[in-house]
Amino acid sequence: MPHCYSGLTQRCIPLCHNAAIMCFFGAIYGCGPITSLSSRPPGKEMPRHVALVATFDLPRRHRLRGLLSFPLWRHHRLKNWHVCLLGRSHPLSTATSLSELVTGISAVTFANAPNIAVGNVLGSTVFNLLILVMLDALYRRETLYSRAAQGHILSASLGMTLIAFAGFSLLLDQAGMSPAWGHVGLYSPFIVLVYFVAMRIVYSYERRILSEYTEVSAERYPDVTLGSAVKGYALAATAVVIAGSWLPFIAKDISDLMGWGQSFVGTLLVTVVTSAPEVAVTISALRIGALDMAIANLLGSNLFNIIILSVDDVLYTKGPLLAHVDASHALTAFTSVMMNALVIAGFIYRPQGRTVLGLTWVSLGLFMLYVLNSWIIFGHAQ
To answer: Which of 145, 172, 187, 306 gives a 20 to 30 Å CA spacing to 161?
Structure first.
């Protein structure tokens, strides 16, 4: 069985249509990964966007040479089970958005740079969709949108809703029309509420899709311990925290030395740095054939990034955060909305051919929108 290219001591799960996905849950929780998917239900074909990741302990009498097959929810109780639809990788996207979270907290608490904090969050939602352009260019077998699961439409739609609300709240704050509770804008608890409702919707969708495809073959690998996984995660998180804490100060210095606005620096330069984990995960997922995992990580990151605005708003004590930033951030938010709409159109239409530079018309449109937003922000942002 091939090893994962992510560098972790994990293994890959071969899926139908020769796809694969990293079993990162098995490494994190110290339990063995599922090694294969067993036979499909009679008369049904398992969709390529469905994969199952579970960690479990079974009675010894049910083991057969360390390998057995059973209906997941009907006959055995699973411990610490996790369902991961290839169309959704929200636990993974939460981890890759840690850099945006730390940078935002540092920007509003220590660096006094709210424009960098907001620019980084909203700029990341645009840059993540630009990564789809890179993904489409690297995926040469077919077009990205013809192979991707249509379940991604749900994540893109929910993310677009949150981003649009953030831009709407920013415009209200700029006009002095947004209510606040103390120094916190009332949009912050609403964003948190919508985020968890969105997670519930995604969870319900996954369970409904997976309910018909529940047979797995499993094998336990005790070589990965919980301690080693936690240690590796802690070291990586510490490095992100240290780098993210200093990044706003460096960004402020660049803004002063070059005469660039902090909104531009936060939206473009800081975003490129904090989005490096998303780029790395996307490339790694593509190398193992997990196309849907790469897409899900990007769309899931957009969802989580908006909730970072609420965290930054609570920690920014000079008033509602969106009332103290440049109005040009609304342009970035609505550019992201247009890009999400274009992505959704691609998932529905599923273009087969490529146009200019080996890209589909969807990716070409995403690239043009990103360049347009960058040009306007550079010329007019403060």
So the answer is: 145
Q: Is 1 among the domain residues?
A: no
- Quick one: DSSP state of residue 1? -
In a domain, 218, yes or no: no
pLDDT < 70 stretches in the chain: 1-94, 210-224, 381-382
Cα 326 from chain centroid? 26
φ, ψ of residue 218 in degrees (nearest 5): -135, 150
* pLDDT reported for residue 75: 32
Task: Give the number of domains in the chain.
Answer: 2
Q: Does residue 194 share a domain with residue 47?
A: no
Helices (H), the chain: 24-28, 90-96, 98-109, 114-138, 144-147, 152-174, 187-210, 226-258, 262-264, 271-274, 276-287, 291-315, 329-349, 361-380
Identity (one letter) of the amino acid at 23? Answer: C
One domain for residues 66 and 131: no
Per residue in 89-118, pLDDT (tens digit) is 455 666 778 899 999 999 999 999 999 999
> Angle between the 329-349 and 361-380 helix axes, to the nearest 10 degrees?
180
Q: In this predicted structure, what is the pLDDT of residue 284?
A: 87
For residue 35, the SS3 value is strand
Domain boundary among 64, 83, 102: 83
Per the structure, the complete domain to which residue 232 belongs is given by: 90-211+225-380
Share of the chain above pLDDT 90, in %: 47
In whole angstroms, give the CA distance from residue 255 to residue 269.
Answer: 10
Q: Which of 20, 53, 83 is the last residue of a domain?
A: 83
Residues 78 and 132 in one domain: no
Count of beta carbons in the 10 Å neighbourhood of residue 141: 9
**Considering the domain boundaries, does residue 217 fall inside one?**
no
Predicted pLDDT of residue 91: 57
- Would residue 216 count as lying in a domain? no
